[in-house]
Design brief:
The structure holds 2 protein chains of 2 kinds. Chain A has strands at about 5, 10-15, 20-25, 30-40, 45-50, 55-60, 65-75, 75-80, 90-100, 105, 110-115. By secondary structure, chain A is mainly beta. In chain B, the strands form 2 sheets. In chain B, strands 2, 4, 5, 9, 10 and 11 form a 6-stranded mixed beta sheet that branches. A 5-stranded antiparallel beta sheet of chain B has the order 1-3-8-7-6, with no helix packed on it. Chain B is built from no helices and 11 strands. Chain B starts with a strand and ends with a strand.
Chain lengths: ~120, ~110
């Protein structure tokens, strides 16, 4: 079964609204989680690295005020897309690093459509 | 230069063919290596870990060459269901750093 749960799987919202996506590790404590964005037929693009108890590290070109990340516990990280616009429409995926075996487990992704 | 590089392909092969993908990494501190598979509009899923001695899982063989800093994935007797994008993932142990390539797309045709 899934070891990383991501919700919701699909969101359709109006332009200007904020959308929160949750990523939970179910079987292990994840001090490090990652957030990615993927456009159709393109590769996964790392947006930020989320570390429990500290500020997220954002990749170059990713606006931290636009994509708010909170990693408040060892099993939960959230990504909030603030004031979403149509160009934010994409497939967002999280992953959690299991430090015990160094394996990366991915959530099932969230398809965001901003109208 | 990217930390992890893969040939993007696409690789188009007939059923039953043998196909190999390579992945190079630049961080010599990298210590754990994996191959993931991603189907269209799905999340990547772990295919297999890559060990220094090389390892095999059915039709799949993974190898690691630390001296040259590359890993490979060999798929024998390709099936239609093998069509996917294959990602190599490289971790720096205990650093919370996991880097992966852009993926190699494989299409197996009848």
């Amino acid at each position: 079964g899934a070891v990383v749960s991501q919700h919701p799987s699909r969101v359709i919202c109006k332009s200007g609204t904020s959308v929160k996506i949750e990523c939970r590790s179910l079987d292990f404590q994840a001090t490090t989680m990652f957030w990615y964005r993927q456009f159709p037929k393109q590769s996964l693009m790392l947006m930020a690295t989320s570390n429990e108890g500290s500020k997220a590290t954002y990749e170059q070109g990713v606006e931290k005020d636009k994509f708010l990340i909170n990693h408040a516990s060892l099993t939960l990280s959230t990504l909030t897309v603030t004031s979403a616009h149509p160009e934010d429409s994409s497939f967002y995926i999280c992953s959690a690093l299991d430090r015990g075996n160094e394996k990366l487990f991915f959530g099932s992704g969230t398809q965001l459509s901003v109208l | 230069r990217k930390e992890v590089e893969q040939d993007p392909g696409p690789f188009n092969v007939p059923e039953g063919a043998t196909v190999a993908f390579n992945c190079t990494y630049s961080n010599s501190a990298s210590q754990s290596f994996f191959w993931y598979r991603q189907d269209c509009r799905k999340e990547p899923k772990l295919l297999m870990s890559v060990y220094s001695s090389g390892n095999e899982d059915g039709r799949f063989t993974a190898q690691l060459n630390r001296a040259s800093q590359y890993i490979s994935l060999l798929i024998r007797d390709s099936k239609l269901s093998d069509s996917a994008t294959y990602l190599c993932v490289v971790n720096v142990f205990n650093a919370g750093k996991s880097t992966f390539g852009d993926g190699t797309t494989l299409t197996v045709k009848p």
